[in-house]
Design a protein that fits this description.
- By secondary structure, the protein is of the alpha/beta class.
- The chain has 8 helices and 5 strands, in the order E-H-E-H-H-E-H-E-H-H-E-H-H.
- The longest helix has 20 residues.
């Protein structure tokens, strides 16, 4: 995860923060797209997998799906992280599965508002991605349970759905345009896309 300095308005007051959750099943490309959104917009990147306790990781590593009892404290930690960032004036983009409506509702209890970006696409594409990636504890065998758990976004949710087969760069720019996120012009011009490493927890 990376951090950034609070946005400050000319009056000295903190600007309203933005909080985006890039969601979807394992293998959808959440982390890659969320990182690129962070680079394009300057929003602080967060990786939900890093908030899992070791017991959750151990279960997933051997192919045991998480139940709600295991997910709930994890989701509460994520909501608290976004709330802490908001209080510090820091906007965020979080890579998180957020599969059920109840999970998304819990995340909304963190900062004043949360917007969701669902990376959706064919199961066979996702399965192929998962089978070729290395170094991740989530086995391909858990994909079916994630798909079964996924509850599509409802019309009343502040969200967009995008095709995960598109290039990450295109997806990040589309998210920034459709959600009205600020472009990080000074970073693009200087080639500097590395924010500071201090992050509220």
């Amino acid at each position: 995860m990376t951090g950034e300095s609070p946005h400050v308005a000319p009056t000295g007051q903190a600007c309203p923060t933005r909080h985006i959750v890039v969601m979807g099943v394992a293998g959808a490309g959440k982390t890659t797209v969320a990182r690129r959104i962070s680079e394009v917009t300057g929003l602080t990147f967060g990786e939900a997998d890093e908030f899992h306790p070791e017991a959750n990781v151990a279960r997933m590593r051997v192919g045991i799906p998480l139940d709600d009892a295991a997910r709930w404290p994890w989701l509460q930690a994520l909501a608290a992280w976004m709330a802490n960032c908001h209080r510090a004036g820091v906007s965020t983009v979080l890579a998180c599965s957020a599969l059920r409506r109840s999970y998304r509702d819990l995340l909304r209890q963190g900062p004043p508002s949360v917007q969701f970006v669902h990376l959706d696409g064919p199961t066979e594409v996702i399965r192929k991605r998962m089978s070729t990636r290395a170094g991740h504890y989530m086995p391909v065998s858990l994909l079916d349970s994630q798909i079964a758990t996924l509850e599509p976004l409802s019309p009343d949710e502040d969200a967009v759905v995008l095709d995960l087969r598109l290039p990450a760069e295109q997806l990040a720019i589309s998210v920034a345009d459709r959600l009205g996120l600020p472009a990080r012009a000074e970073r693009v011009m200087t080639g500097d896309s590395s924010p500071s490493n201090r992050l509220p927890r």
